[in-house]
Design a protein that fits this description.
This protein folds into two domains: 165 residues, Rossmann fold, CATH 3.40.50; 129 residues, Rossmann fold. It is an alpha/beta fold and 310 residues long. The longest helix has 22 residues.
Length: 310
């Protein structure tokens, strides 16, 4: 079977991790996998198997000017249509809202089954009126729409009807299958809280810092590590200074293997304002860590049974 997968980029992120996992899985089983991205060829953050054919299309820049943006997206549609036809797929799989719209427009009339996937909570993730209208127009053309949670799918039920499906994200093998620490060793009497995600407003790390400050007064043995990078790093570092948490909160940046960090943690916290389906939470639970999560839309309430496993 020939499969063509489409996503904006292969940078560090939950959707990118999942699509890379899917591409590698199918390639390992002998399927012909072509992976199209809009970027200019930045090396993938998550390793791809040699059998996966990665084709960066250099179509990524966005423009605030409406007219320029319109022509740019028309070019994207033309390029997508040409490259997808060249790959001769048996099926096309697209990730993320705007890319889904472009792929559905590009494949219109080609007779190809196109499966699309929404990767966040559509009620809180704003894509703009024009894109929202195009989403309502094009999503019924898809062979199937995959959402990560029942709450997200409910938003699209009127648009796609019975074509909608809920499929949770895959989780990598726990550390028991890997050749490094399988317990929280080397911390002595210290206690470590870990959080992971893009350093953006949606992940709520500002709320986590406030909560950590309040909860850990009189508990100098507790520290916090937040894994990830993003636009709010400087603001969060300033907040740490204001709260007097210097030396107790670390930002080590991005990591390709979260289990290496979780190996030293005592607690995992998810502080997001909204989610699609939090990979980091699932990875922490797969590792066997105690977890605490905000009851944000959507995902955590479908993963955690309150008072039972988190």
């Amino acid at each position: 079977m020939r499969l063509t997968l489409v996503i904006a980029s292969l940078r560090c992120g939950g959707a990118e991790r999942v699509l890379s996992t899917m591409a590698n899985y199918w390639a390992e089983r002998g399927e012909e996998v072509t992976l199209l991205t809009l970027d200019s060829g930045v090396p993938p953050f998550y390793p791809l198997r040699p059998a996966v054919r990665h084709r960066p299309l250099d179509l990524a820049p966005e423009y605030r000017n409406l007219v320029v943006g319109l022509f740019r997206n028309l070019r994207r549609i033309r390029v997508f249509r040409r490259v997808i036809r060249e790959s001769r797929p048996d099926a096309v799989i697209s990730f993320m809202d705007r890319v889904n719209v472009l792929v559905l427009l590009a494949t219109r009339g080609l007779g190809l089954p196109v499966l699309i996937s929404e990767r966040t909570d559509p009620t809180l993730h704003e894509i703009g009126r024009l894109w929202a209208a195009l989403r309502r127009l094009t999503y019924p053309w898809a062979e199937a729409l995959v959402c990560q949670s029942a709450a997200a799918l409910a938003h699209f039920r009127r648009i796609v009807g019975s074509k909608g499906q809920v499929i949770a994200n895959p989780v990598g093998a726990p550390a028991a299958t890997r050749n490094y620490t399988t317990g929280r060793e080397g911390t002595g009497k210290k206690r470590l809280i870990v959080a992971m995600g893009r350093l953006g407003a949606e992940k709520g790390f500002d709320l986590l810092l406030d909560a950590f400050c309040a909860a850990c007064v009189g508990r100098p043995d507790w520290s916090l590590t937040i894994i990830g990078e993003g636009p709010l790093r400087n603001e969060l570092e300033q907040q740490i200074k204001r709260l007097g948490l210097g030396g107790r909160v670390q930002f080590p940046g991005q990591v390709s293997d979260p289990f290496r960090v979780l190996a030293h943690a005592d607690l995992f916290v998810l502080s997001s304002r909204f989610e699609g389906f939090p990979n980091a939470l699932c990875e922490a639970m797969a590792y066997g860590l105690p977890v605490v999560s905000f009851d944000c839309p959507s995902g955590p309430a479908e993963i955690i049974s309150h008072g039972v496993n988190g």
